[in-house]
Amino acid sequence: MATITPPAAPEENPRVKAVFDDIRATRGTDFINNVWRYLAFDPALLESVWSEVKAVMATPSAIDPKTKEMIYVAVSIANGCGYCTHSHTAAAKAKGMTPEEHADLLRVVGTASRLNALLGAMDVPVDPAFQADG
Amino acid sequence: MATITPPAAPEENPRVKAVFDDIRATRGTDFINNVWRYLAFDPALLESVWSEVKAVMATPSAIDPKTKEMIYVAVSIANGCGYCTHSHTAAAKAKGMTPEEHADLLRVVGTASRLNALLGAMDVPVDPAFQADG
Amino acid sequence: MATITPPAAPEENPRVKAVFDDIRATRGTDFINNVWRYLAFDPALLESVWSEVKAVMATPSAIDPKTKEMIYVAVSIANGCGYCTHSHTAAAKAKGMTPEEHADLLRVVGTASRLNALLGAMDVPVDPAFQADG
Amino acid sequence: MATITPPAAPEENPRVKAVFDDIRATRGTDFINNVWRYLAFDPALLESVWSEVKAVMATPSAIDPKTKEMIYVAVSIANGCGYCTHSHTAAAKAKGMTPEEHADLLRVVGTASRLNALLGAMDVPVDPAFQADG
Amino acid sequence: MATITPPAAPEENPRVKAVFDDIRATRGTDFINNVWRYLAFDPALLESVWSEVKAVMATPSAIDPKTKEMIYVAVSIANGCGYCTHSHTAAAKAKGMTPEEHADLLRVVGTASRLNALLGAMDVPVDPAFQADG
Amino acid sequence: MATITPPAAPEENPRVKAVFDDIRATRGTDFINNVWRYLAFDPALLESVWSEVKAVMATPSAIDPKTKEMIYVAVSIANGCGYCTHSHTAAAKAKGMTPEEHADLLRVVGTASRLNALLGAMDVPVDPAFQADG
């Protein structure tokens, strides 16, 4: 299953090997999951994607790593990406998301989706108080 | 602009007044934003929606209130609900979201959306390690 | 507002005039709403779209006309098309949708959207009983 | 396949058993489909979701039960929820949806989706006549 | 897997046989892929869909056939249709899409999706210069 | 209208000025459209986004610039981003998209969206012939 043929021996390509090595070092594990194995069909795309994911998800920033994974899961659910929902739910758990937080995340995602639909149905004008640019 | 005619004097209906009173008490403000004014066209729907929003967003739970608002914003962006993005961005700011956290939220939402698309494009099989039900 | 420049005098083009005449005759009104005025920028596309809309929405079929408009509204909400939600909500009302049915429609759309999100979040396997092809 | 580990013996939890009993009584069948078995990982979420689904889908209201299932299917298709499309197509059939109505439902969903895209492409202004709030 | 039971011997229906014959003649192959085998459950819907696909995708027009397939893939990714992404990626390859073009297509789709999300997050007003209707 | 307050004098920030200068040089115009003016609220995000857009859209690659803009438009329509649809339709026109190509683009986007919905409705299994990874 896939629209892409992943390379059989991706690390024979030195650009792919460099990315895989950086993934392993950044994450502290030998496990390279499928998204990277398939993206290896185009080393430049692999580099660009990993570079962005590393900068956004694996670099200290204003939001803590566990919460960033939970936000990532929320977006992936709304966008209907099954792979992403699976991989980042696993990442959130690995970073400490408890079953109670997981249930709470689903609660917020479900409620937001219901309200998103109701607002789309009614097409309510945005209150002036919510406009940040005056 | 709207597909619904909001009642001109919604609080003449005692069921609507009870919900509006609870919104004001729960939020500690007199401001009733448009979503509630339009939902008032059907008091039963208004009660059901407010009851869920109060239980999920305004009741202490595993995730803190500011983070819940940020997750709500992430879902609303992905679902394309402009009203919801505006109202819950304002709510997140009111609950302490800093400009740095706001920028970080956008960063995660943007990167997740890019990856969601790439995974949909390749249709990569989910790694067995990500399956929670064995 | 638009990415298309609608023709200033669309009915000077005989293909556009023929479609507009058929819209007026089919609907029993002189009102031509904006979607047709903008689609007139390309008469062949206008003909193709009107032909399909007429066959599906304005021709007797297994589902009654009012219900078809309500299904159309449900899809348009989920797809985030504000114009379509407005125009087909108006059409459903014109075909007899009551305020109670409108509220009920929103209730179903909101609940389905909440469940759609929760199922995407959990990625639950489809029960074999639901498979129609054995 | 799933991001959630469903409880092995869900009905040992009395809150889950109460919901499952109500599902069986409401639907007149012993069959509990997977969505409820997985939601049982969090009894409070299970209760909240079933309570809403029962109130909206299994309680007499302005729209008849079969039509509500068909609207639910339409939303689920547009939101890309495979599980929901399967389960509510089965429910619609159980409530009397004929093959002709099923084909007609697909016809409306397909045409609406085509038009939703075309309107998004052109970004046509909403006709004033379609505005319900003056 | 499917919500539809495809006919076991679809070509016993002369309307289905006529469409299948036209698919084979238009494409120069005996292969009839699953979408047509399942749509055959309703010959009128099959005819309508094939007629549109033939007119849009298999008839010479302003955009060349390979590019039309790539645009079709882009839409299918964004709409989350796995089947469509697979079948039209295969069609694009059959019409000459190189691995470099495939990677470039994914690059554009990924970047557009990231920006689509960021613009939705910020809800930036459209510049007057981009309005085609004055 | 916006959830972000754009800086009043963005180019007083040297990082923002450097990006704006590069946009002007790359595009050969003094016009800086709103997306960049709003993204300037966070110079690091602005740099990251422009860097990716420049690399993907303004750097010679396997697909020609006009076609990349048209693919970008297709994705933006499907994702419901009005701003993006407007700005990249304008960009495609600036790079030579004719009215006939514009109409053809809409035709493909509309047809793909109709089929995307129908496939989601039927949940047809992917033909083995379309699997690229064996």
Please give a structural write-up.
Chains A, B, C, D, E, F: Residues 50-124 form the Carboxymuconolactone decarboxylase-like domain. Chains A, B, C, D, E, F: GO terms for molecular function: peroxiredoxin activity. The structure is a homohexamer of 134-residue chains. Chain A has 134 residues and is an all-alpha fold. Chain A folds into 2 domains: 9-59, AhpD-like; 61-123, Up-down Bundle (AhpD-like). Chain A contains 6 helices and no strands. The first copy, chain A, has helices spanning 14-27, 34-39, 43-57, 65-78, 82-94, 99-122. In chain A, helix 1 packs parallel to helix 3 and helix 4 (65-78) packs across helix 6 (99-122). Chain A starts with 13 loop residues before the first helix and ends in a 12-residue tail after the last helix. The mean pLDDT of chain A is 96. Chains in contact: A-B, A-C, A-D, A-E, A-F, B-C, B-D, B-E, B-F, C-D, C-E, C-F, D-E, D-F, E-F. At the A-B interface, helix 2, helix 3, helix 4, helix 5 and helix 6 of A face helix 2, helix 3, helix 4, helix 5 and helix 6 of B.
Concise description?
The structure is a homohexamer of 134-residue chains. Chain A is built from six helices and no strands.
Strand residues, percent of chain A = under 5%
CATH superfamily of the largest domain in chain A: AhpD-like
The CATH topology of the largest domain in chain A: AhpD-like
Count of distinct structural domains of chain A: 2
Secondary structure tally: strands of chain A = 0
Q: Biggest interface, and residues per chain?
A: A-B, 69 and 69 residues
The CATH first-level class of the largest domain in chain A comes to Mainly Alpha
Low-confidence stretches of chain A: none
What is the H-and-E element order of chain A? HHHHHH
Continuous helix count of chain A: 6
Please state the structural category of chain A.
mainly alpha
Oligomer: homohexamer
State the share of residues found in helices of chain A, binned by percent: 55-70%
Largest sheet of chain A: none
> How much is the average pLDDT of chain A?
96
Kindly report how far apart the N and C termini of chain A lie: 50 Å
Computed Rg of chain A: 19 Å
Shape of chain A: elongated
CATH architecture of the largest domain in chain A: Up-down Bundle
